[in-house]
Amino acid sequence: MRTRVSALHLMIDYTTFEHDVLVIGAGGAGLRAAIEASAAGVKVGLICKSLLGKAHTVMAEGGMAAALANVDDRDNWKVHFSDTMRGGQYVNNWRMAELHAKEAPDRVRELEAWGAVFDRTKDGRILQRNFGGHRYPRLAHVGDRTGLELIRTLQDHGIHQGIDVHMEVTVISLLKDGDRVVGVFAYEREHGRFRVFKAKAVILATGGVGRAYKITSNSWEGTGDGHALAYHAGAELIDMEFIQFHPTGMVWPPSVRGILVTEGVRGEGGILKNSEGKRFMFDDIPDNYKDQTARDPEEGWRYTQGDKSANRPPELLTRDHVARCINREVKAGRGSPHGGVYLDIAWIKEKLPNSAEHIKKKLPSMYHQFVQLANLDITTTPMEVGPTTHYIMGGVRVDADTQASTLPGLYAAGECASGINGANRLGGNSLSDLIVFGKRAGEYAAQFAKENSHGSISQEQIDAEAKRAIEPFDREGGENPFVIQNDLQDMMQRLVGIVRNESEMKEALDGLRQLNERTSKSSVTGNIDFNPGWHTALDLRNLLTVSEAITRSAIERRESRGGQFREDYPNKDPEFAKFNIAVQQDAEGQMRISHVPLPEMPAELKQVIEEMG
Amino acid sequence: MKATFSIRRGGREGGELVDYATEVSEGMVVLDAVHQIQAESAPDLACRWNCKAGKCGSCSAEINGKPKLMCMTRLDTIDITEPVTIEPMRAFPVVKDLIADVSWNFEVKKRIKKFKPRPPDAEDGTWRMQQSDIDRVQEFRKCIECFLCQDVCHVLRDHEMHDEFIGPRFLVHVAALEMHPLDTEDRITELRENFGIGYCNITKCCTKVCPEHITITDNAIIPLKERVVDKFYDPIARLVKIFRRK
């Protein structure tokens, strides 16, 4: 259906689509949700910001964590659950961590039934590898391209399920009928035409916010769209202060700074050294990990080679800790020439014959990435690495079982939802999160769609959104949105990065006010067809919203825990272990902070944690 | 130091090469130059990109006439003393600037029968496969769907036989399914009758441009051609057929 409205002096057309369940985002969580909803017998639409199969999930390298116990039969859901809670510093939603640990094995096996081809054990089962914070080898993987395998498997299964795929469409806002979310307003990229999608239930699966920072492993799409859409519609976001800085991103050459170097390098025996050649990770092992960590390099090596009596090397401590140790070495003047430290996998030639072939087989895409982008052979030469903004633990506050947000009709899954990871996510828990909670979101959104009819969308909402969207074309002589985005990324990197303090973050809030002001005066040139300047102008609103949420939440949490390190409050404070910090838009449009008490963990799960040590 | 990039500008109706000069620095790739030009002087310059690490296959283009990923083409591997031309892939219609309309590829994939596994090997619903039996399929599954192989294939690029031939990308996809140890589906008849495998005359251009170094022709297309031959042209099988008819 095509409708015409007048906004400013332009006449704007829009086309209306109707689905029972609309999924926004086509990475692992969105695809899995769409498949599940479709299987439940409702009409499903799937919106991709890019082409199908290109979502950021393809960048996941190491694997997906699931206690299959194929490699070490001591593993089970209880160990996985307690590892996840410990990694998250116990501010996780215990129910999500429980469901995730229990259901991940089935979700992984299901992928095999849909055609995924995981690496194998000697007896022909799915092989599992070691990863930071996981007590036993737990990550099902395909070399170092597990994310590609996940997305391609879901894509190739999904295209035969009768899902309507809308590629290169970006959602500008959620549309409501009273409190309930009943659709979205969007544009398609080729001609910049507006679209209204009516839906009985909407699932956000939009991924992360990495583009708020200068050094990031995230693609251009990671602009916090789902976070911001939910927030502006009135939903609550929690844990926004918890950002994961992955310890190992590339640092040289400048143009590739931030690109991920998989934790799998360390899982296969790679070690971290400073400019003095010292293996510094042995110097700083947190107390609660001491009895799970190798006493010396020899034990660490044995662990990476599958010796079940050995403990893991300190390079495989949680990501928040390893990132801070690297940061400390660099600040102390013991960094590499380009401001990182050395990650050395080449050294294993002392241990293994044919080590070069072994490395190329285990880490093929890392080998090619460094040869092609940095002119460096990782089988002979150590890599230079440093922390990169990788993942946000915070997101839309959801019900653990159903993934329903605090607004009726709105669901969220994957990185844009929050709860499972607490203050820090373990590597490998993201891909399994996508499929466990993607499935649940699809299931319960479909159920909601069956129980409710379409809501009504007022013409005023659509007119207002259309008007706001085309404003950048009506302003002349304003700033280029790319310049504002760069300035935002510089500022967030500088003031709300790995090491934070109150005065810098207050400065960041002032900076955000100015950036908001500049954005409201920015303008774009050219026509509306496939115009990246315009797309950036619209994405900026989301980036500014999530940046404010991150900063305000980080100021509020006056302690250090997981992904948040405050130099003015360097210790953990038990008071802050009792609640999550939430942000919500108030009636005046201001961001309001509140404390949401953590739900009480049932006795049997407390006992699991005690038993697991 | 400055370098000049001649970039195709314009929509579906037509376009022209426009020169942009920009500062280049150590380690830069072509996609960096395009982004720099967007930020400096042409914010409406359209290009696709996502991961910037050679993993998503979005930024395919023709650089000095050669099909490449912009994110993996370092400026120190090409001559930048002359203007560097950047154009969209030629085997597909252009949408705008560097964007090609690759929607045909997504339609083709839907026509290929999906994976159909044999019943599980174990009571817990799982299968057993040896690593040596899946190495071949894993090579095909490295594909990032950049469609550079489709772009360079003369059957599509020069003869425009998009209706009759599915192209190297989807022959690799069929190979990954046909050679999957668990798969029970049969796609050999379609290969011959609907997917046009016979049009491939093994010039190996696709293999040469594959950024994932998949040996498309030798490992995927030739074995599939052999399967087609075995099914339709095997002399003993033909004799058996003739006798059965009687």
| Secondary structure tally: strands of chain A | 22
Low-confidence stretches of chain A: 4-9
Query: What percentage of the residues of chain A does DSSP assign to strands (E)?
Result: 15-25%
How far apart the termini of chain A lie comes to 60 Å
Mean pLDDT over the full residue set of chain B: 95
What is shown here, in short?
The complex is a heterodimer of chains A (613) and B (246). Chain A is an alpha/beta fold and 613 residues long.
Overview of this protein structure:
The complex is a heterodimer of chains A (613) and B (246). Chain A has 613 residues and is an alpha/beta fold. Chain A contains 16 helices and 22 strands. Among the domains of chain A are: 143 residues, Flavocytochrome C3, Chain A, domain 1, CATH 3.90.700.10; 110 residues, Methane Monooxygenase Hydroxylase, Chain G, domain 1, CATH 1.20.58. In chain A, strands 1, 2, 3, 7, 8, 9, 10 and 17 form an eight-stranded mixed sheet that branches. In chain A, strands 18-16-11-21-22 form a five-stranded mixed sheet, with helices on one face. About 1% of the residues of chain A have low confidence. Chain B is α+β, with helices and mostly antiparallel strands and 246 residues long. In chain B, the strands form two sheets. In chain B, strands 2-1-5-3-4 form a five-stranded mixed sheet. In chain B, strands 6-7 form a two-stranded antiparallel ribbon. In chain B, a hairpin with a 2-residue loop joins strand 6 and strand 7. The N and C termini of chain B lie far apart (80 Å). The interface between A and B is large, with 67 and 58 residues.
Notable features of this structure?
heterodimer, A: 613 residues, alpha/beta, Flavocytochrome C3, Chain A, domain 1, Methane Monooxygenase Hydroxylase, Chain G, domain 1, five-stranded mixed beta sheet, 22 strands, globular, B: 246 residues, alpha+beta, Fumarate Reductase Iron-sulfur Protein, Chain B, domain 2, 2 domains, two-stranded antiparallel sheet, 10 helices
